[in-house]
Amino acid sequence: MAMISSSVQSTLHKPFISPKHSQLNRIPLLASRLRYSSSTRTTTIRATSAVTVKPVSNVDKSGNSESPEVFACPVCYEPLIRKGPPGINLGAIYRSGFKCKKCEKTYSSKDIYLDLTVTAALRDYTEVKPTGTELFRSPLVSFLYERGWRQNFSQSGFPGPDEEFKMAQEYFQSAEGGLLVDVSCGSGLFTRKFAESGTYSSVVALDFSENMLRQSYEFIKRDGKLLNSNLALVRADVSRLPFASGSVDAVHAGAALHCWPSPTNAIAEITRILRSGGIFVGTTFLRYTSSTPLIVRRLRERALQPYSYLTEEEIEDLCSSCGLTNYSSKVEKSFIMFSAQKP
């Protein structure tokens, strides 16, 4: 069975040249190769039963990998087969083609990110998401996100990126050495911090917005170390995550939950992809807290209708209903950071 189309095969055998993204031309392949195995091995664990599984790949003489790996088909959740160099890094993924062995749908990198949405490569159908999602697909909002937009969050109690990252790292201690997925990564503000920390074997930045992913790349390419790190940019829908069940050690969602069309579907998906013992950490704006006056509560409920602003009690209930345990949270004004674990 042909792995990918003849045109893509022809492209993969040519030297990798990216005139548009010349930075990628200098990215060396990872010395370490992804390995896939049907068996699991236990890594060092801190107060959790988390298990880390690394794919084992079959690499031919030309350096191409033709084996299942960390990414899965968003249609049937089967691990994808890659034709191209192994590794979770920008250069390797850019030069690779991916195919689902079950439904035979193919996926490839577009610009500098891998498109793993169900609508990838469709020509006639365009799916329009709710306002809260479409807003962040705007080039202007993507450009402004780290140039003033995100800074305004401090008025609602957000402690700032450095402190938020520190807080998240405390929750993620048991996931050290594993795979971290930064869902709804935006311009990659926290993705870069997770990758720079060296705490995780790989970091996948995931967002539905094409322009946010392009903006994320613009920030990444400023740092040569990040260009060569185990970091990937992936376009995906949070309600249809492109990972096999039980394959991810940690999931982060910064200031994202209120923008999701269905927080229930999103957290259910996050629970599905987490390994046993895996950690989910998120931040968002609360609709109101227990100390908010009744009249203010009613005004906020009307004003915030386009978004899914929840209360702390609703977030905990939602995590519990999706099968997550050990819920904990920290609240400051309208800011909340919460954490939950897959049993």
Automatic annotation (TrEMBL):
Residues 181-281 form the Methyltransferase type domain. GO terms for cellular component: plastoglobule. InterPro entries: Methyltransf_11, SAM-dependent_MTases_sf. CDD domains: AdoMet_MTases. It comes from the Eukaryota. It is found in: Plastid, Chloroplast, Plastoglobule. Pfam families: Methyltransf_11. GO terms for biological process: methylation. SUPFAM superfamilies: S-adenosyl-L-methionine-dependent methyltransferases. One of its GO terms (molecular function) is S-adenosylmethionine-dependent methyltransferase activity. Transmembrane segments: none annotated. Keywords: Chloroplast, Methyltransferase, Plastid, Transferase, Transit peptide. Belongs to the methyltransferase superfamily. This is Methyltransferase type 11 domain-containing protein. The lineage of its organism: Eukaryota, Viridiplantae, Streptophyta, Embryophyta, Tracheophyta.
